[in-house]
Every structure is written in structure tokens, then in C-alpha cells.
Amino acid sequence: MTANDAALSDDAAALNAASTDERVKALLTGCRRIAVVGASPKAHRPSNGVLRFLVRHGYDVVAVNPGHAGGTVADVPCHAKLADVPGPVHMVDIFRRSDRAGAVIDEAITLKEEKGIVGIWTQLGVVDDAAAARAAAAGLVVVQNRCPAIELPRLGLG
Prior knowledge:
With 158 residues, this protein is an alpha/beta fold. It has one domain: NAD(P)-binding Rossmann-like Domain (Rossmann fold), CATH 3.40.50. The protein is built from seven helices and seven strands. β6, α6 and β7 form a beta-alpha-beta unit. The longest helix has 18 residues, at 98-115. The radius of gyration is 14 Å and the shape is globular.
């Protein structure tokens, strides 16, 4: 865990109470390794485009998709589940339907210490307030219903 990761983890409660822009900035500037859950190898899918965007903007990205585990998605390694990703994961970016996001968030909470997870991000249209509350209670910074490919340029971060 880097100094930025530790600061994010320590400040999670304050950041979750702060404005969305403050939370987004803290997460995007404090995290370097991102797991994109639900990443698709199909170039026309939003998950693929966002994964490639994050790579182009200097993030260390891994894909998580059980249907493509052992292969690559947009030239990054793909794993079946978060627990299979070697090394740390600072942020979990979820491209799953809202009714399936909770299971991913619960896995991230379970792996928080082992993987150094400090943040949960759900993509546009993905909202699970109950799971987000569990993540926040576990000390994770939570951003819902946003896209980093929109937020980075909007906030002047990339």
C-alpha cells in the first residue's frame, strides 16, 4: 500500500461524506492499480473502451471476467475473480448490472486488507446503495454511477 493508498483508506469516511468531485479526485489521483470487473474483449463494449482509456492514462489495469480468465482483454491480463489477481488492487471498477454489483463489492470488502483495496467505483447506470453502504462502513471510498473516462478529463486530471 502506498502513502496515497493509506491516506485514502484513513480518510474514507470523510471522503464518502464529501462532495462527489472530491471523492472522485481523491480516488483517481490516489489509486494506480485498477481491476475492471466485467471487462469485455469486444472493442465496441464500454468496459473495453474504459479499460483502454485507463491504460492510456497511466493506470496499471487488470481485467476480471470469468469467461475470459487466463487470456487478455485489450492486451491486459484477465482473471476469473478479484481473489485471483496477483498483487495489489487499489480500486475496483465495476461493469456489472446493478443487481450483480453487490456480490463484487462484497468480494472487494473481503479482500480489502489482502489486496490493499481502497476504493469501489461503479460505472454509469450501476447503483447498489446497500452494497455501497457496506463498502463505506468497511472503510472503502465509494463512487457510484460515474465513469472515469468522463471524470478524468472533466476534472482536468487527464
